[in-house]
Design brief:
By secondary structure, this protein is mostly helical. The chain is built from 4 helices and 3 strands, in the order H-H-H-E-E-E-H. The relative contact order is 0.04.
Length: about 150
């Protein structure tokens, strides 16, 4: 809180209290003499110029980010439109799992979604033989990455 002497020095309006601007001027009076010297005014101007430079930098950054958002939104729209065109011109055959051209039924894409693997239980003899092979391999190279579980 400002002292009574400080208020008397910086109270421009004579209302007995300091407003925001008067408080800012008081804070810039480094030597506390109640006036702003050339050096103190120069410091204020330097700070203002630095703030303006930072403001311009932030404005540029905001513009670049908005441009990036616009670019990404446009790319997303383009991908969506391509998907719509692709869906309009193709059919999915669930029996074969293929994507076919409408009208010609020519296969344009294929995707395997699962594999069927049948497993058989090993006999005790087969299990012991495989276990022996694994143990031999691990003894030959115990530091191999496949052996670190």
């Amino acid at each position: 809180n400002p002292t009574a002497a400080s208020v008397a020095l910086w109270d421009i309006h004579g209302d007995g209290k300091l407003d925001e601007i008067e408080m800012a001027m008081r804070a810039r009076d480094v030597d506390g003499d109640g006036t702003l010297s050339k050096r103190e005014v120069k410091s204020i101007i330097e700070d203002q110029l630095r703030d303006q430079s930072e403001y311009r930098l932030y404005c540029k950054m905001a513009c670049y980010l908005m441009g990036l958002v616009l670019l990404l939104a446009t790319a997303n729209l383009g991908t969506s439109l391509a998907a719509v065109v692709l869906v309009k011109d193709t059919n999915l055959d669930p029996a074969t799992g293929t994507i076919q051209q409408k009208g010609t039924n020519e296969v344009t894409g294929m995707q395997t979604s699962a594999y069927h693997v049948e497993l058989e239980e090993l006999s005790d003899q087969e299990y012991e033989e495989r276990r022996r092979l694994v143990d031999e391999e691990m003894d030959e190279d115990p530091d191999h990455p496949d052996h670190h579980h």
